[in-house]
Amino acid sequence: MFFVSEAYAMAGNQGQQGGASGGLEGIFMLLAMFAIFYFLLIRPQQKRAKQHKEMIEALKSGDQVVTAGGIHGKVVAVQDKAVTLEIATGVRIKVNRISIAGTSSGSDE
User: Fold this and answer.
1) pLDDT in tens, 45-70
2) I need a surface site. Which of 6, 45, 84, 106 has the fewest CB within 10 A?
3) 65: exposed, middle or buried (Cβ count in 10 Å: 0-12, 13-18, 19+)
4) Do both 91 and 77 map to the same domain?
5) How far is CA 108 from CA 64, 74, 84, 89, 99, in A?
6) What is the structure's pLDDT at 104?
7) Same-domain check for residues 16 and 32
8) Measured distance CA(73)–CA(9) in Å, rounded
9) How many domains does the chain have?
């Protein structure tokens, strides 16, 4: 008949043989996971943020832009932290520079 104590004894011998390398494998797996997260998530996000910052700094009067809220307009004036957009003839709004999501190509209607 098979007893529980014999099962534990048999499992214990196998666990001790692989126990020393198990710690190294665990560390290796953690490093591999961090590398995967870095190259798939962190690095592309940093690259996108750098491109957005460069685009914000390069804004000039006459650029066609889109805000984070989806408003399309033409840059009329650029201040230190704000941008004045003309969204229709004679209609101007002032938005924070950081809220400019990107530039748009094409003409407004």
Assistant:
1) 999 999 999 999 999 999 999 999 99
2) 106
3) buried
4) yes
5) 9, 9, 16, 10, 19
6) 85
7) yes
8) 75
9) 2
The span from the CA of 71 to the CA of 104, in Å, is 11
Nearest to 108 by CA among 56, 58, 71, 67: 71
Q: Distance from CA of residue 69 to its chain's centroid? A: 19
Could you report the per-residue pLDDT of 66-85, keeping only the tens digit for each? 999 999 999 999 999 999 99
End position of a domain, from candidates 43, 58, 73: 58
Residue 108 lies in a domain: no
pLDDT band at 9 (very low <50, low <70, confident <90, very high): low
CA distance 65 to 74: 6
pLDDT in tens, 13-39: 554 554 556 788 999 999 999 999 999
Q: Which residues contact 103 (CB under 8 A, 6 or more apart)?
A: 55, 63, 64, 65, 66
Same domain? 35 vs 74: no
Do 54 and 24 share a structural domain? yes
